[in-house]
Amino acid sequence: MGPSGSGKSTLLYTVSGMNGMTAGEVIFCGRNLGNLKEKELARLRLNEMGFIFQQMYMLKNLTVLDNIILPACQSDKIRESRKETARRGCDLMHKLGIIEIADNEISEVSGGQLQRACICRSMINQPGMIFADEPTGALNRAASKEVMEELTKINGEGTTIMLVTHDVRVAAKCGRVLYIVDGNIKGEYNLGQYKSREELRDREKTLNNWLLELGW
Ligand SMILES: Nc1ncnc2c1ncn2[C@@H]1O[C@H](COP(=O)(O)OP(=O)(O)O)[C@@H](O)[C@H]1O
Ligand SMILES: [Mg+2]
Question: Hey, whose CA ends up nearest to atom 11 of ligand 1?
C-alpha cells in the first residue's frame, strides 16, 4: 500500500523482473534476476509467475477461454495437447464461477467476470507466485469482494500472491502489509494468515489504525 506515485507498481515490476534495477538484487526461486538475459526472464515470467492488472489486457479477437489458455499454448513448461489445456482452462473457469462465459467475446461480459478470467489466465501455467497490481481497482464493491475471495482461496492453496491495493478491505485479507512512501518502505505490518470471515472486521480496524498512524 502507499500513496499514488510512491513506487508500488515499480516494486512489483522489479520483483517480477519486468523492470530492470539500478541497485540491490532480486532472488526468485533461487535465481538472481539481475543475471538473467531478457529471454530467460521472459521464460521465467511465463512459466513461474502470473500477472493480474487493473487493466485486463485481454485480446478482443479471442474468446474468454482462449484468452485464458493462451499462456499455456506459449509455454514450454506445460506439455499437453490443446484439448487437455482447454480442459484445464475450463476447470479453472468452473472453480472461479465463470464457466458459462467460456465461449463469450470479451466485450460481452462484466468487469467482475473478466477480472476472474484474468485470475484464471494468471494460474494456467501453475505459477509459484502471482503478482497483482490493483486487481480490484476497476471493480465495484461486490465484484471486488468476489475477486478477493478467489485470491484468498488460491493463496490458501499454496500460491504466493504479491498485490498492490488502495482498499483496506482488500489488504485486511493479506498476511503481511508493506507501506511505501517515496520509494521507501515506511512500515510493515504482519497480520498473519487470514482464516475466517469472523476476524475480518478486527483485521480491518487494526490495519486502518496502523495506516492512519503512518499518515495514510
Ligand atoms: N525506489 C525507487 N527509486 C526511484 N524511483 C522510484 C522508485 N520507486 C518508484 N520510483 C518512480 O516513481 C514513479 C511512480 O512509481 P509507481 O510505481 O508508478 O507508483 P505507484 O504504483 O505507487 O502509484 C515512477 O516514475 C518510478 O520510476
Ligand atoms: Mg501503480
Answer: 7
Distance CA 113, CA 95 (A): 12
203 lines ligand 1 (CB under 6 A): no
Summarised one tens digit per residue, pLDDT across range 50-66 is: 999 988 999 999 999 99
**Ligand 1 pocket test, candidate residues 8, 10, 22, 216, most atoms within 8 A of CB:** 10
Global pTM exceeds 0.90 = yes
Domains of the chain listed by start with CATH number: 8-213 (3.40.50.300)
DSSP per-residue codes, 67-107: HHHHHHHH-SS----HHHHHHHHHHHHHHTT-GGGTTSBGG
Contact indicator for 92, 123 with CB cutoff of 8 Å: yes
| Cβ-count burial 128-159 (b if 16+ within 10 Å, e if not) | ebbbbbbbbbbbeeebbbbbbebbbebbeeeb
- What pLDDT band is residue 18 in, cutting at 50, 70 and 90? very high
Tell me, what's the pLDDT at 37? 94
